[in-house]
Design brief:
One of its GO terms (molecular function) is microtubule motor activity. This is Kinesin motor domain-containing protein. One of its GO terms (cellular component) is microtubule. Belongs to the TRAFAC class myosin-kinesin ATPase superfamily. Kinesin family. Helices cover 55% and strands 11% of the residues. Among the domains are: 199 residues, no CATH class; 87 residues; 168 residues, no CATH class. The chain has 864 residues and is α/β, with parallel strands linked by helices. Strand 5 and strand 6 form a beta hairpin. The strands form four sheets. Strands 3, 7, 8, 9, 10, 11, 12, 13 and 14 form a nine-stranded mixed sheet that branches. The protein has a three-stranded antiparallel sheet with strand order 4-5-6, with helices on one face. The chain has a two-stranded antiparallel ribbon with strand order 1-2. It binds adenosine-5'-triphosphate. The site of adenosine-5'-triphosphate has 19 residues, from helix 15.
């Protein structure tokens, strides 16, 4: 019974054979004709056996005899081995008649050995007989056939059956399908058919054949379908693999397999390359203009590309913005640089302008100095705590100009401006104020006479400027303290070149002669007296021997007041009257001085003007410091103060002179003094001179031990020259215990640096106090200067006075002596600042008022 596999194989072989024949006989060369012939023979045998009803016999015969001869020939041709002893062309009969038995078996044996040598499947000789295994014979013949076919195409690889072949690429599959599916021959088909039908009963053969035919038809259909699939797959762009059925595998030679493997590798490489390209194309951004490329990309890739494009756009935008920013930065930096340059130029110009302004001011001051103008400074007090007002009488301060709001009767306020040497606003500090006047203060060390006096209505800040606030702090120190401190510092700095001696004197003019304690409604700390701190300086140049003398008055005037406003009565009213009177006298003096042609200057009208005579009329450097209260109700006083200051500023005193005298001049002066003394002796007035030089009273006066009577104020209130002289006698005391210790008991030795054993100088101080003339006040308060010493008008007067005024001098010395003096020995004094802060006031050290309470500047304060 034929197995289904056998039937399938037969069907496949038949189909293959038909197809091969339709393909124009592309079978093995040389064998084609034979195969066709065999097929015909088989066909004839088939029909004959059909007719005879013995197909099995026919197949047996065909294989055993005629076709086996063909096998021998194939074998010989393929293996170059001899199977048939006799030449084939002579041994093989054309009609297929059988060889003799011996030779036949000998040929079969040779054939089987040859097959074995080639490794081909063999069979037993008995298989050729009836009842043998014809299948083995058929297998053997088929294997031989395939071997020969392979040999003919030049492939020597050992033949192999079976096995599963890897899927082939489409190209390879197509090529393979274009080749004959199976190198079958009609003989082999015939053998197959014979094998299939060999064990069939005759009545079964039709059904088997029918089944075979149906299988052939199926095989055809399957082949056509697979061909269609192949064609279809060929049309597909993707490379796909086709599975090759077992028959294909069987028909594939090892070399084909190698080639197929190579092709597969190539295909894999190509595929990998193409997939790699695809991968790369997904990674590398596609050109933005190529839309076709984007269309074929998968969606995520397209999204990615879009995002990437956006990123690229952003990047390019960012780089554009960045470059713009860089340009802007560049422009800005250039602009800034230009601006900086402009600013530098402007600031340079501004500083230049400031310098020019400062220079102008200095030049202006120098011109004023040359002219001998009285300098005028103005300071505006801030509003007092708790009395801050929204409106101020001061409309503005600009550089050296102050503008006041002047109330008008007609409703509209007018502004009035005043220009002075310096104007300080309410915020100006004590230091700023002092710094401005510092050069003036220092000039006293160069031998100049200096006078600084504070002027203004009561409560406008005079004492604050000159001394400081009630509670003293370092920042609050006023001009007096700072000036002394500065002078002491310079004295220390110059000690190697110049030997300075500095003496300080405090004077007070109260009610022209009286001292009293009172207060006003305008200022609860009001100073009701004029106080004057005088600093005497003598310097000796250690190299040249030149002597410098200078003195400085620092005057804090009592405040002017309108009695109707201050509501004072009684003594307070009397005080105010005296103050106003003395200030009016000052105004008269100023007015006289302002009229340059005026010959008479009424200095003697008040002790204040007598005190300031030398500063206002001499060759001193004078500074008037006016003070303004900002309160609107004080505007009228402020205006009158400012107008008064304007007049003062016009006064030309003449260029200040330094009090310097060289060694020769000094010697000559001493000689003159000696001659004068000799002349006086010759005139027989020895007594008078001696009494002047060595009077115990004078000695007492110099040592500060004036008669207690002199401390009593004169109560009569009369303004007399005598009383003034009494006051001034005390004021004229110079020399501390230090300097006075240098004096002998008779007072003939040097009285500090002012006397220096010079009769002339002794006159300057002691002689002057002996006169009854009110000019004594002038002399006593004048700084000791060359001018003072040689003034012709004063000298005879002094001499005359000394001649006969001894008792009078003594008398006046006892009158109303109120002063304090302080001689400072630089070697023994403590540091200036220490001194400043530890000692409230020179006045407080040396003198305390009998009734009044002294303010820090030595003025007689008033208390309500
Ligand atoms: N520049 C200033 N800064 C702060 N406070 C000031 C200033 N000037 C003055 N004062 C204050 O104003 C008040 C009056 O000042 P001050 O006593 O100095 O006036 P005065 O002109 O001396 O008055 P009088 O003539 O009555 O003595 C004081 O309390 C003082 O501290």
């Amino acid at each position: 019974m034929a197995s289904p596999e056998q039937e399938a194989a037969v069907a496949a072989a038949v189909v293959e054979d038909v197809m091969r024949q339709q393909g124009g006989g592309c079978g093995g060369s040389g064998g084609g004709g034979d195969t066709v012939g065999s097929w015909r023979n088989l066909d004839i045998a088939w029909r004959k056996s059909e007719e005879a009803g013995n197909l099995h016999l026919l197949m047996q015969l065909s294989i055993n005899r005629g076709h086996l001869n063909w096998c021998f020939l194939w074998f010989e041709k393929c293996s170059n081995k001899k199977v048939v002893e006799v030449p084939s062309d002579s041994t093989v009969p054309a009609d297929g008649t059988a060889l003799c038995a011996y030779q036949y078996f000998e040929n079969v044996r040779n054939f089987l050995i040859g097959l074995q040598d080639l490794g081909l499947p063999t069979f037993e000789a008995s298989d050729l007989e009836k009842g043998g295994q014809g299948v083995r014979v058929v297998d053997c013949v088929l294997a031989l056939k395939l071997f020969c076919d392979a040999k003919q195409v030049g492939k020597q690889s050992p033949f192999k059956y079976g096995g599963i072949v890897k899927p082939l690429s489409a190209k390879y599959a197509i090529r393979k399908n274009n080749e004959p599916f199976m190198k079958t021959t009609p003989d082999s088909i015939r053998m197959l058919v014979q094998t299939v039908l060999s064990d069939k009963k005759p009545e079964e053969i039709p059904s088997v054949v029918e089944s075979l035919l149906s299988k052939v038809i199926n095989e055809f259909e399957r082949r056509i379908a697979s061909q269609s699939e192949l064609v279809y797959s060929l049309l597909l762009p993707t490379s796909q693999f086709l599975l090759v059925d077992s028959t294909q595998v069987e028909s594939t030679s090892p070399s084909d397999l190698e080639e197929a493997t190579e092709n597969i590798k190539m295909d894999e490489v190509e595929k990998n390359a193409s997939s790699l390209t695809e991968d790369v194309s997904t990674l590398v951004p596609a050109p933005l203009s190529n839309d076709n490329v984007n269309k074929h990309m998968p969606k995520p890739v397209r999204n990615f590309d879009r995002e990437q494009k956006h990123i690229q756009d952003l990047k390019s935008n960012m780089s554009t913005v960045k470059s713009c920013m860089e340009q802007l930065k560049l422009l800005y930096s250039e602009d800034l640089k230009k601006l900086g340059d402009h600013l530098r130029i402007v600031s340079h110009a501004a500083s230049g302008y400031r310098k020019v302004v400062e220079e102008n001011r200095k030049l202006y001051n120098q011109i004023q100095d040359l002219r001998g103008n009285i300098r005028v400074y103005c300071r505006v007090r801030p509003f007092l705590p708790g009395k801050v007002s929204s409106s101020s009488s001061v409309a503005g301060i600009e550089d050296r100009t102050i503008t006041l709001m002047v109330p008008s009767k007609y409703g509209k306020d007018a502004k009035k401006s005043f220009t002075f040497n310096s104007v300080f606003g309410p915020l100006a500090t004590q230091e700023e104020v002092f710094t401005d006047m510092q050069p003036l203060v220092r000039s006293v060390l160069d031998g100049f006479n200096v006078c600084i006096f504070a002027y203004g209505q009561t409560g406008s800040g005079k004492t604050f400027t000159m001394s400081g606030p009630k509670i003293l702090t370092e920042e609050g120190l006023g001009v007096n303290y700072r000036a002394l401190n500065d002078l002491f510092n310079i004295q220390e700095q110059r000690k190697d070149t110049i030997c300075y001696e500095i003496a300080v004197q405090m004077m007070e003019v109260y009610n022209e002669q009286n001292r009293a304690v009172c207060s006003t409604a305008m200022n609860d700390r009001s100073s009701r007296s004029h106080s004057c701190l005088t600093v005497h300086v003598q310097g000796r140049d250690l190299t040249s021997g030149t002597v410098l003398r200078g003195c400085m008055h620092l005057v804090d005037l009592a405040g002017s007041e309108r009695v109707d406003k201050s509501e004072v009565v009684g003594d307070r009213l009397k005080e105010a009257a005296h103050i106003n009177k003395s200030l009016a006298a000052l105004g008269d003096v100023i007015a006289a001085l302002a009229q340059k042609k005026s010959t008479h200057v009424p200095y003697r009208n008040s002790k204040l003007t007598q005190l300031l005579q030398d500063s206002l009329g001499g060759q001193a450097k004078t500074l008037m410091f006016i003070h303004i209260a900002p309160e609107p109700d004080a505007v009228s006083e402020s205006i009158s103060t400012l107008k008064f200051a304007e007049r003062v500023a016009t006064i030309e005193l003449g260029a200040a002179k330094s009090n310097k005298e060289g060694g020769e001049v000094r010697e000559l002066k001493e000689q003159i003094a000696c001659l004068r003394a000799a002349l006086a002796r010759k005139d027989g007035d020895h007594e008078s001179i001696r009494s002047t030089q060595s009077s115990p009273d004078i000695y007492r006066m110099r040592t500060g031990n004036a008669s207690p009577a002199s401390r009593h104020p004169i109560e009569d209130g009369s303004i007399e020259n005598d009383s003034a002289l009494g006051d001034l006698a005390e004021h004229s005391q110079f020399g501390s215990s230090n300097s006075l210790s240098e004096l002998g008991p008779d007072g003939t030795q040097d009285l500090a640096f002012y006397q220096r054993s010079s009769p002339e100088q002794q006159w300057s101080w002691s002689g002057s106090v002996a006169t009854e003339d009110s000019d004594d006040f002038e002399v006593a308060t004048n700084c000791s200067s060359e001018l003072d010493c040689v003034r012709p008008s004063s000298a005879p007067k002094a001499s005359g006075l000394t001649n006969g005024g001894g008792s009078a001098a003594r008398k006046t010395q006892l009158k109303g002596a109120k002063s304090s003096d302080l001689r400072v020995n630089p070697a023994k004094r403590s540091s200036p600042l220490q001194k400043k802060l530890s000692a409230p006031s020179p006045t407080l050290i040396k003198k305390s008022g009998a009734e009044g309470k002294k303010t820090p500047n030595g003025k007689t304060g008033t208390k309500k």
